[in-house]
């Protein structure tokens, strides 16, 4: 019997941001179901992210992808700049949409104070 869910969320494992992410999903994805993936650096390891998106598409028939990077990411080290995160988020979106053109992909950058900023 197939299982359906609306989306997948990919974010970093950093504990400092988990409450912000949970509050954001409670507010912005209130009536949606979603798979949740936590990886150090979020989409930094794009190959692993794609494997998770593949599973979510295959098993849960998702329609949306939410990719979240954050300020001061230890997995990025000195490369953790808004410009680098924006570049990597956009690369991830392009990679996902090249394989799954019907998926809606949303990109966000999360600040230490909990503010989410759309990346586009």
TrEMBL record:
Cite the GO molecular-function annotations of the record. Answer: carbonate dehydratase activity; zinc ion binding
Per the record, the domain of life is Bacteria
> What InterPro entries is this protein classified in?
Carbonic_anhydrase_sf, Pro_CA_2
Q: List, alphabetically, the Gene3D superfamilies matched.
A: Carbonic anhydrase
UniProt-recorded name of the protein: Carbonic anhydrase
Which organism does this sequence originate in?
Answer: Candidatus Woesebacteria bacterium GW2011_GWA1_39_12
